[in-house]
Amino acid sequence: MIRPLCLALALLGAAHAASAERLRLAYWNTELTRKGPGELLRDLTRAEMPDIRAAVQTLDQLQADVVVLSGFDFDAGGLTLAALNALLAAPYAHQMALRPNAGVATGFDLDQNGVLGEARDSMGFGWYPGQAGMAILSRQPFDTVASRDFTSFLWKDLPGAHLPPLPAGADEILRLSSVSHADTVIRLPTGQSLSLLTWHATTPAFDGPEDRNGLRNADENRFWTLLLDGALPHAAPTGPYILIGQANVDPVKGDGIKEPIQSLLADPRLQNPLEGDTVDYGKGIGPLRVAYILPSAALNVVARGVLHPDTPSRHWPIWVDIDF
Fold first, then answer.
1. Which of its termini does the chain have fewer beta carbons within 10 Å around, N or C?
2. Could you confirm whether domain 5-323 is CATH 3.40.50.920?
3. In whole angstroms, what is the distance from residue 8 CA to residue 4 CA?
């Protein structure tokens, strides 16, 4: 059963549908991942799995024009994303599966536990390439020429990078992104372009005193401030943009280095229209704010919300409406 907030969402959806110049953007960590490659695609073609039925219902409830998904298994042909899209009441015309670093072998014993080839030895945590990646479903077309993928950016090349102790030579190949960083440009009916700055940072926990995950999480989030500052080899976006994804750190509660996300929330170039928790990890950790939608300052945000569906995912979809 969907909670009462969905009624308000449905009413907003009706208002949203009435305006051709209004765009609803949403983000959701679906946690639709499986133990092996191809298993999610198999389950999507069967469509009877409870988590898949619940995810489809949630995406239909969102009524988003653009939805960024994470925790969703990647395949190079985009078959898994296409299978999910086909189950929706109103399938999206445009799909983008973002190739993640998760599960990509490094050849190094990164956690230096004496065992090579574990999930923690990959570019980003994962038991196989593409596990728990990111994807975008859009009713508006992508501008693939203007879009950029920062996922291969090396951690050591980030100005002021805070690398933990690593095996000799590992810093020469280790990427910053545990999942991905990307600037995906969509073309709007108004003729404008909008940059979706998407990312899913690592959790700042499950490591040792070297704080490898905490340091990486902080630098993954700091990447965006440096990009907007023009301090990276990649140029800052020139038009309107939205940071949308999972910083995986609460600005106040829980584990992690707070300064990078606090800086983003206080940045005058950005808006912070949504506040409050976006996940409940249950006993021992509890609710946290880990997902964010931060539009650039000039964008006109006219509505926002958090959906609380009944799904196996611990994360709640978040959304904003922008009037162009």
1. N
2. no
3. 7
The string of DSSP codes covering 128-167 is STTTTEEEEEESS-B-TTT-EE-TT-BGGGSTT-------
Please report where in the chains the tokens 């600005």 appear, as a residue. Answer: 251
Number of Cβ atoms within 10 Å of the Cβ of 222 = 23
- Residue 178 CB neighbours (<10 A): 27
Q: What does the longest C-alpha to C-alpha distance in the chain come to?
A: 60
CB of 187 closer than 8 Å to CB of 138: no
Quote the tokens at residue 47: 């469509």
Report which residue type is found at 135: A
Q: Is the pTM of this model over 0.70?
A: yes
Query: Which tokens sit at 114?
Result: 């004496």
Domain locations in the chain as residue ranges: 5-323
Local confidence pLDDT in tens for the 324 residues of the chain: 333 344 344 444 444 544 558 999 999 999 999 999 999 999 999 878 999 999 999 999 999 999 999 999 999 999 999 999 999 999 999 999 999 999 999 999 999 999 999 999 999 999 999 999 999 999 999 999 999 999 999 999 999 999 999 999 999 999 999 999 999 999 998 899 999 999 999 999 888 888 999 999 999 999 999 999 999 999 999 999 999 999 999 999 999 999 999 999 999 999 999 999 999 999 889 999 999 999 999 999 999 999 999 999 999 999 999 999
